[in-house]
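Hi, here's the filled form for the chain we discussed.

Project: internal
Contact: R.S.
Residues: 299
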Amino acid sequence: MTAALETSGLGKSYGRGASAVSALGALDLSIPKGIVYGVLGPNGAGKSTLLRLALGLVKPSRGSVRLLGEQTIDARVLRRVGAMIEAPALYPFLTARETMHAFARYSGLNDPAREDAVLARVGLTGAADRKARTYSMGMRQRLALGAALLARPELLILDEPTNGLDPAGIQEMRTLIRELVDQEGVTIILSSHLLDEVQKVCDRVAFINRGQLVSEGKVSELVAGQGSLFIRATPLAKAMAVLGARGRVDGDGIIAAVAEEALPALIRDLVSAGIDVFEARWMTQSLERVFLSTMGGAQ
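And the returned structure, exactly as it came back:
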């Protein structure tokens, strides 16, 4: 199957000679179609540079990029792509309805019903006749997303799509993203610093640091089997003696570094030693902890 986005030795530098700054190194990446793919990294890691290169907004200094199987990123290919990069650039004097109509004309569309449907989908029907300059940051994000959805894109590229959204808006955005992928077959590539949301919405992620790919894989595999056991038991000292180097005291309990499949045997050992176990709770590894561990090792 053709990848949604494929890069080979892709790099971007700004400036020349000794003063040149590398924003992206020799990046090799293949993003399959039909999933939500997260691009993660600290500020200045090269995430936005990668998305801009993918859209042909900047030219690579080295290497190549294929978008939807095409190496030449021109208007023909970009008609199949919707994008929202950094802060949305909207016409402040136009209403949301007028904005949708303007973007529809740019895309060669003449379908007022589609414009209304997109406004409804991003939750702006009730504010469709208000000028964009009166919108909050979150509402501008929704309007920009609506414009990106107008032409029914195969691929949607979103840079920090939850910026400015309140918790309810973030949840709605997450639901919309999953619906677009699961029900309509759209591929979505997004960058975000909200790792909890990334874990909930993304199928695969790539960790980028200092312009280099550090790690990549399925979210479920990155967090699987990486966790710890919280035990609340008495006497605490006796429980620690059973656990030895595998345990550390944490408040009124113990955090035990053991494999998930070893939990039943460990509980039996504690009970056999005359220890009263009041709580035993497996704490799944979060993507945030994986991220911090990965980035820490890449410094």
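Let me know if anything looks off before we file it.
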